[in-house]
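# nightly structure sweep
# worker-07 picked up a monomer target from the shared queue
# config: single-sequence mode, recycle default, output format = structure tokens
# input follows
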Amino acid sequence: MKDKRNKQVYLSHAGFVLIGIGLGAVFWILESAVHVIVFHDMGFFEQVLNPETHEAWMRLTIVGMFVGFGVYSQWIVNARRRAEREAILANTELTQIFDTAADAMRVVDRDFNMVRVNGTFAGLSGVRKEEAIGRKCYEVFWGPLCHTEQCPLTRILSNMNIDRVEYDSEKVRKDGVRIPCIVSATPFRGPDGELIGIVEDFKDISERKESELELMRSHERLRDLTSHLQVVREEERALVAREIHDELGQVLTALKMDVHWLRHRLPGEEQSLIDKTHVMSKLIDRTVQSVRRICAELRPGLLDDFGLSAAIEWEAGEFAKRTDIECQILSDPEDMILPQGISTAIFRIFQETLTNIARHANATKVEIILKRQGERVEMRVSDNGKGITEEQIMDPRSFGITGMRERVHHLGGDLSIRGSRNGTTVDVVIPIHQEGDLDDKSTGGG
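# output follows
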């Protein structure tokens, strides 16, 4: 069986050569017979086996042509067979790659007919391969770009220079389920370069989208937690400030009155004791000032009693005293009263901005503009220091800037920080909600 198969293979590779040799032999015999019939000068077998020199040369030339033709024909046939085998192998490889691809794929012709789909596409679209082939592409696994100028086939047909179209889209299965996909469309051309249609690739990104949504939800929960912690922190600050003011304030006032009472009860000759009471009185006064300063830092009473403008003006004044940095304030209107939550957030952002200026800016002057524009409040703080860099703004360790962003985000506002060689500018824009739209305590500072 094996020998028979080997003979068949040999004949298929040398068949035309053998035909050429056979034709040459037949020609030699026929030419010998014709020569004997025409000239009668020698016998047939002598003419076949021992012809004259010129006769043999002529016959050998003709036989060589037959054999050469057979060799050349066989070479052409073998080359064509090799090309066919390579084409079949390449087509088999491409078919296997197409059918076993992890991504869903389909081939669409110029008339929007699906001519080929793979198994992944059938599973993703919910339509069997046999049902999909021959149907319009916009009838199976359609999306929002179908029947529009942004359809990838329409775009490629209108512009032959497009090599690839890629976009994110939601495709609709047979059962109506929407599948988020990354869609890639490339031109499908024939051997002569003529556009036949497109090859579409669909990558299912449902899991990635779900992960993104979960990450966003987690991020929002963290932001809500941060806002809640700010509320708790601000409430604790206010509580501690009230406790210090009420308890220590009363005790210090009573102590000062007792020292005053004691001073006037001491004999005149006890001058050292009288001087000691003066020292004690001054110490009590300094302690009272410290208590006021601590209470103001925890929760400035001006913010609750007189509004945002007065609190910012007081804070700027204290900052100028501590740092010798000139502060200019422009407030429009001069007495700006806002919901407590918004006032607290803007005031805390202002405090953080001044802290950054004192630590990093090397500035000599700060300009503060606070104004109300319709249903929003704007604050701009500019200094003439060395200017913050983009790396510093985006540094994840800049917790102060991160806190400012979170406050503004929670109130639905915008925060902009720009640095240049002329200094740094911080812009804050926050919408003013109606009293019923915003729980003021939900925006407590920290």
